[in-house]
## 1
Amino acid sequence: SGSSDPYCVVKVDNEVVARTATVWKSLDPFWGEEYTLRLSHGFRSLTVYVLDEDTIGQDDVIGKVSLSRQQISAEPRGVDSWLSLAPVDPDKEVQGEIHLELQVPEQGHPRVLRCHLIEARDLAPRDLSGTSDPFARVSCRGHTLETAVIKKTRFPHWDEVLEFELAEGEPGEAVLSVEVWDWDIVGKNDFLGRVEFPLDTIRTDPTKGWFQLLPFPSTTEEHGGQLGALRLVVRLVEDRVLPPPYYQPLIQLLTEPILCPGQPPTGTALAVLEEVTSGESRQDVATKLVKIFLGQGLAVPLLDYLTARELARTTDPNTLFRSNSLASKSVEQFMKVVGLPYLHNVLKPVVNRIFEEKKYVELDPGKMELSRSRRISFKGSLSEARVQESSLELLKGYLGDIVDAIVGSVEKCPLIMRVAFKQLRRRVEERFPSAQHEEVRYFSISGFLFLRFFAPAILTPKLFSLREQHADTRTGRTLLLLAK
């Protein structure tokens, strides 16, 4: 058909941890999915496989992108780029572990890095016999040494020590690379995996243990984009979680302006946090604030504090809560945390019907497919006006059902949301009391509910767990027009 039905599988150290939805009939898929993965401290690599889903038979692997831990952590703000897909050959996939001991003794001049290659296990079979002829190649600062070849085994035992002389000033930012290869008497040797160690992590005490072998990391240049490229944003955040008492001073500092409102408003921790957070970090900060204050039973006072500060800065009511301020982001995250079951209750029946009916809807004459319209019509060719008319009726029907569901859901709306919006309305009335601004009290609430809650969920139901799969092209267009 000239297209694919692509989806992604995410693996961490060869363990599947996530799968995206399938985007049907597309060579330029957009997933827009975000995962927060809890990783072990010693994880080694993250690999994303792109596959083509087949209704009959096994799914085809299109390509993969591999990122090592070092590659991700080397970017303080994370990896954010297009990465070329590497071909996936089942016979060349990396597996197994290597047993190493690394040491830089304190005594001696010059200092020497000792790499004790003990053994490896469960290596990939590369020969017809179902085994390999493995040897290890160790590189450091442009120098390379190799072990002996152990014939016909996937569990080689070398017990060899390779030594590298370290120049003055090292280790610095240098890296020790250990690669395992399958030796072939004819042709090129086959790669079996690798592992890297920054020299500054190798202390006087030996670094010893089993380490998982990894593939070569992907780059933006390799393979010339022949298989396409995958846009990834990957950020590694290492959190050390302490016992609850350690966080109590921070919680007291954050909640102080809520519990003791008599303080100068500009000198509080929340006020300072509001000033220093940038657009990139504001959503993360808002999410964490909402969760902290929900845990303390103070979410509504937090929103009241932040929105009151923004109201005090606003002179034109038409711009109220339109920016991605900390107040706006906090209300948005608050609705997502406490209102998701309510959102499902209101929207899911209509969204499911839109997905099932797959009606053709288009209002833009430049995007109309009249040939498609003829196929769905029992009266022959349809004009642009007829298509617009039928599309408008469908949209009105769907939108009417959505509005009726929202209006009839007052009792189902979480009490804490209703309390928060009641307080917001009161604050807006106090800030803009004149008759000419009477409608602002309603716009301020509907702006949050519709523009930041219901409309995004209608546009991309998958991201709000309303559907397991993304919409196809036709349904996606219907959802876009409804959201607008």
Note: Residues 82 and 259 are 47 Å apart (CA to CA).
## 2
Amino acid sequence: MLLSTDPVVYIVHAQEASLGGFREGTVHSEQAVALLPRRTMYKDVVTILSRSHADRNVYPSAGVLFVHVLEREHFKGEFPPYPKSGSSPGDASNDPITFNTNLKGYPDRPGWLRYIQRTPHGDGVLYGSPTAEHVGRPTVIEITAYNRRTFETARHNLVINIMATEEFPLPYQAEFYIRNMNVEEMLASEVLGDFLGAVKNVWQPERLNAINITSALDRGGRVPLPINNLKEGVYVMVGADVPFSSCLREVENPHNQLRCSQEMEPVISCDKKFRAQFHIDWCKISLVDINKVVPVYVTRPDPGTGVLPEFGEYNPPSESLRSRDYFSDFLVTLAVPAAVALVLFFILGYTMCCRREGVEKRNMQTPAIQLVHHSAIQKSSKELRSMSKNREISWPLSTLPVFNPVSGEVVPPIHPDNYETTSMPLMQTQANLQNQITIPQQRPSGKWYP
């Protein structure tokens, strides 16, 4: 069920007062068509914030920021009141609702129109700046609301009729980068009015309007870390009818350009008028005079009608085609490689099996002395292998004392002949040996004791 309520249009005016002189005039129950002739009543049109709901016609101007708020409160009435289990029916009003917007008949929105909704419990916002190319062509936007709890959907249409005006776009345009704002915060009429008031106080134009607002993420910026209340940043483009003030041109002097190249803050005299609420990166400010911009015309090829030219009727081949003989193809692809492989196999087999010299021929061609040496080496190796199998031998006498240095008698063997020496080391201490012989030590008195 669609609600047939009259649209409410908000128009922000710029007065001749200072920063606090901005006010918001609200025109209730006024048809959008009737709004067009009344625009001349206002001296400065800053932007248009449309809160008209679905199935409505809105009339933004080319070159002026357009904002359309998708209010959850309106779409809640489109869903049946299914209460949550164990709760009262009134609790169902806080259901999470998300929106999907697209150009009717297409999967996405027009290039100039953007959409943002931070959480399912917040309102969605359509915003953008239409250009003169879209003037005179109604743009139908399909808005689909999804109730994430009950999975109900509601679809409405928003018809955007872009109007052309002679006073827009304004010739002098400045783009500011605000570091401490997100795009949805900047789209609020109060915040945008405060910013335009600060710009008007610095620039002093007769007419001033917001042209476009872009998130820094759409310009390649990084998503900030969730610490210290960091923001994404937002680019705000404004236009005026007078040249840029001396304060805005201070960023172009060589000293400030040098500070920007060294990643230092430039010295701007009017920064204090913004610092209370907006932290502006003056190194990223852009000043454009569209009267001095040379237009570039790109010739596009004619897309044509999209219909292929007439080539006549299709004539398929006749059924009386001659059969093709594939025997020659078989010989080339299979028989020839197989024959070559077979020849190579026989050559390799003959070389390995039939061309061996043999042991007798090798011995005939080897000198006799070399054969004797080879035979002796083999015999010695076999003898050493056989000796290594029998470990039942005595310890070498060279590792033991041969005679007693005092008495001069011969020392008997330290172990019997049947002593197992397989696991004994070659050199071992005499303290662990059997039949230990005590060698007398010399006394200080010069006498020997046994």
Note: The chain has nine helices and 14 strands.
## 3
Amino acid sequence: MIMYWFLTIILIICSHVSTSTSANSGGRVEYLPGFQGPLPFYLETGYVGVDENEDVQLFYYFIRSESDPEHDPLMLWITGGPGCSSISGLLYEIGSIKFEALYYDGSFPTLILSPNSWTKVMSS
């Protein structure tokens, strides 16, 4: 059932992205299902071309540093692959949000702020 919610959140994030295939086809995400209110951090998602003709597109999400984005480092976190979505890194490893740890009752999971997010000191 948790995979269902992963896929739902991925689809909602992707729906905020422009359908353009240009390298700068990103868009800001201000709300996510399961999170109360607007996101208190800057989240951008989009696609970036990775070959000469930009025929190959990779999905990305970018979270601006919550400290000093002009001077804090930029971290590239590569995760995902066959059978593993990159949203697992956002929700379980480095991201600004995570699932609230509660007994699963079949309802939509709640997202909460992560106090240990790497985005407190760097953009990712």
Note: The first strand starts at residue 25 and ends at 29.
